[in-house]
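During the second year of the project, the team shifted from modelling isolated chains to modelling whole assemblies. The rationale, set out in the original proposal, was that interfaces cannot be judged from single-chain predictions alone. As a representative example for this report, we include one of the complexes processed in the last quarter. Its constituent sequences, exactly as entered into the pipeline, are reproduced here:
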Amino acid sequence: MSDVIRILIAPLVWLACFGAIYGLHGLSCSATFEPDLPAGAAIWQLLMILAGGVAVTVQVCLLFALRHRAFASGSGFVNRVSAILAWTSLAATLWTSFPVLLSSSCA
Amino acid sequence: MNALKRHRELDAIWASEKGWTGWFSTVNHSDLGRMFLVLAFFYFAVGGILSMLIRAQLATPHSAFAGPEVYNQIFTMHGTIMMFLFAIPAIEGLAVYLIPKLLGTRDLAYPRLTAYGFWCYAFGGAMLLFSLFAGIAPDGGWFMYPPLTGPLHSPGINTDFWLIGITFVEISAICAAVELTVSILKYRAPGMSLDKMPIFAWYILVTALMILTGFPPLILGSVLLELERAFGLPFFQTDLGGDSLLWQHLFWLFGHPEVYIIFLPAAGIVSTVLPVMARTTLLGYGWVVAAIVALAFLSFGLWVHHMFTTGIPSLGVAFFSAASTLVAVPTAVQIFAWIGTLWKGRPDLRLPMLYILGFFLTFVIGGLTGVMVAIVPFDWQVHDTAFITAHLHYVLFGGFVFPLLAGIYYWLPLFSGRQRFFRLGEIAFALVFAGFHGTFLAMHWVGLLGQRRRIHTYDADAGWTAINLFSSVSSFILAIGLAMVLVDVILNLFVAVRGKRNPWNAGTLEWATMAPPPSYNFASLPEISSRDPAHADPGLPNRIAGGEGYLGQPRGTLRETLTVDIASGRPDYVVRYPANTRLPITLAAVTGLFFLSLLVKVYWIVPIALIGVVLLACRWVWGLGQRVDEGPVPVGRGVSLPPAAETAKSPGWWGSVFLLIADATFFGSLIFGYAFLWTIAPGWPPPEWLQPLAPELAAGVGGAVAAAVLMRLTIRRNADGRPARITCLLTLAAMGMLGVAVATMTGRVPAPTGHAYGAALLVVGGYGMLHIALAALMLGFLSVRIAAGYVSVTRKAELHIVRLWVDYAAATGVICLLIAHVPVLLT
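Output from the structure prediction step:
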């Protein structure tokens, strides 16, 4: 089972981070959680950029962990596939988090 | 023992009952796979006839062929049947039939579950078919958007048929997904490590995991909408704190992965058949596996791209536009791998190859129009036009039906044991290909000219008449082509001459046994050392038949196979299967009674049906296991292995893990829905909050912790050889304490029909109570099993299965209480 988890972990983390950032965006645009501060919108955008940064950092750490000898699988195939998926997930995180730098609109 | 004697003995053990009555008691995967496929193609024919009616209606302006009410039912049922009653069951059927043969084992992990899934599909499908012939079929479109499908705008029974019928049918998909996941991970030929698995098994494994995580949001959406329709809980009514957009989120959380759930197995067929047709091996096996996994995950991050025109904020749109363009990358990796395979091989233009080439052209066009609609401004232009309908058909027909037909022709000699003689197939392919592109290329065009989807008529001066007529004529050519395929397959199944084994010279294991395969698949289980074992060892079929593999000596009337370690493929346990039984069809019928009583709103039958389901489930499980310790038994080749009941991680444990993953996805979707309504829906805050109650929360958390601890104590006492029944009953009592806390909370929720807040808490509480009741039932059952001598220090499997369910019920029970209390305290 640990080999299956090794293969699935990086894209799973991408999906979790993607969902979390989208959820944070939902909160930022919701009336219930609208901050009273004048700089409220900017704070939310900063939070989202921060969340994007955390997501990228987590993926980079995961990439190193999966390539580290301590976490390596006994199967070369599993190591190779998990490394491909870790790189893919890092690219996906960068690509799908990119909009937080460009757009802050709740419109 | 010679090969013939071995065959006779094994066949006597594994065969289904003779005659047509055997259909009702068979648990054999080959029988059930064929039954799935036949029924799925029957529904393909029904869905196809409905599509002909649609095209007949649209062939001319102001057509009087069908009125709007009938037309709405026709297009809704066309989409519903093709998606839920054809595509998914056809995949299930093919996988159920092929996977054990490809993996070199004798059956799937849970044969009775395969049968139960089939009968749920058969009964649920019959329910929907009845509605069609009775003229009360669903008419809100295959994605059933409220408020159109809510109680105010669709008061009849039509929508209920969809919500209840589809939920019933989806039980079948969940059963098959659990079954296939465990089978692929654990039921393989010894030596078949992950890197030696046939590529088709990888595709089915990923698809099965996607079903487990993709279908629960739709089941939840269906439950919520039915609760709104039947009992007035306002989840989708804006004025009462609901939001119809919640349905779209839940539906497309299922709906977009659904496209890949349909496409991936078809791509698996291409990755299997193409190298054989090109007389080489698949290029970039590891890259393709990575692409499949990446595609599966990315497909879960795309659902909002179906909602670009709903007015969601632009940043949200940008997220999903980015993710939607990204998904083209792993798809392209597979396409380049296929092109590379063709490049390095010597392609042979046989009939399966024709369909694969048809798939290439069609699917690439569908993929490219998919990238087009991922771009937001373009999507705004074409949303809900015939362009989208055309794109959808290019992806699904091109990406699924063409490869499926390639697969049918490729495995036809295995199904039938005959060689193809009648040559209608090539003409049929030409008609299907030309008819399909004529129909749907034209539909792209008319969509760009502004024709909306689902309209039952249009004006003659709209400029769409000639295009629609061309599309309709082409669709009839397509239908003739498909009918010819059917005739060709039937002729070749029943009339053609006997063929030789492995006519394509393929390397996978399904060709290393008889054609058609015997009831037990393999006379002995082979030891595998290559990804293409039939190529690596040409003498393998004879050695399998000669009993040189594992389990080559039949033991009494036992249906035996092996499980293996997931990564290495090293054999670890012996599994004994149950024999033929009518229990699955009976349980499916009683399950159907439960759904039917909800549909016709005769609620006094509901508890009776539920009690029936529980009793039959107990009967189902009671027959498993044994009362004596057996220890390792010889399995051949000098190896002895313990029975699966004598391990902590038995097949039942693995099945429970994956079923709980689906269950947790359902619960996660429920929490998402609650949070969505709280934060996004207008009409909040509710008029009244639930009052937090510290003793209730404390009792619930205390009960949950005590249950988890006591269950572990039960396992430890059993491992030490001490009586475990008392702690088992104490665990039951602790679970009862949690149950009382959750029930009290549920009983206190503010009027559930008055606001979505109360309705959501009622469902959350109901979910918690259901799982606590389930865990309590299991604990009660376990204490009886302990008393009856089914559990010992060695035979510990049942304890670990129950522990999983107790932990899950405890965790979700606590979460339910926290969901009810904490947000109110924060507010």
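The mean pLDDT of chain B is 94. The longest strand of chain B covers residues 571-577.
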